[in-house]
Amino acid sequence: MFKPSRILVPTDMSAHADRAIRNAFDIAKEFGSEVHLLHVIKDPVRQCTVDYCMEDGQFVQFQNRMQESARQEILQQLYKFPYFDSERVTIHIKTGTPHEEIVKEANETDIDLIVMPPPSSGGLAKFRSGRMARQVLKKAKCPVLLST
Q1: Cα-based angle 146, 41, 79 (whole degrees, multiple of 5)
Q2: Domain of 38: which CATH number?
Q3: Dist. CA 142–CA 148, nearest whole Å
Q4: Which residues does residue 6 pair with via DSSP β-bridges, in sequence order?
Q5: More confident position, 38 or 2
Q6: What's the whole-model pTM score?
Q7: What is the DSSP string of 83-128?
Q8: Quick check: helix, strand or coil at residue 40?
């Protein structure tokens, strides 16, 4: 029987991600698993543009604020699930290409199961989220569950 001990859930703080988190918490409750939530900041701030560069200290401070803001948004998302065990949940914030960071995080933290949100409801968003899910399915070394 498959018993995941570490579950990774990528989140963009959307209602679709809420479904994946709910599914991951249900699985975690059943098997006593840890849940790792991952948010990937896809468009990092650039230190220099065409005619302006931020000082190093200012740039680092801005990046730290972005990461802290993302962490606070994830905590707000978690408050929707009053039954979650905060001691068994870890939050990760990364910068990069979402599908690459999801697979990298799964490998680095020895994840047993990735629970992905369902593709968005329509148009370009559905295409992009479906494409990301396909990339994770192709590259992940562990099982991937697409939430419904």
Answers
A1: 65
A2: 3.40.50.620
A3: 19
A4: 34
A5: 38
A6: 0.84
A7: T--GGGEEEEEEES-HHHHHHHHHHHTT-SEEEEPPPPSSHHHHHH
A8: strand
Task: Name which residue leads in pLDDT, 123 or 51.
Answer: 51
71-117 per-position pLDDT tens digit: 999 999 998 887 777 788 999 999 889 999 999 999 999 999 999 98
With a pLDDT cut of 70, the percent of the chain lying above it is: 86
Look at the chain and report how many structural domains it folds into.
Answer: 1
Q: What is the Cα gyration radius of the chain?
A: 16
Report the candidate in 37, 34, 23 with the shortest Cα–Cα distance to residue 87. Answer: 34
Amino acid identity at 35: V
Residue 1 within any structural domain of the chain: no
Domain span including residue 125: 6-146
Residue 16 lies in a domain: yes
* 38: nearest Cα among 109, 85, 91, 98: 91
Whole-Å CA distances, 37 to 8, 61, 79: 6, 23, 14
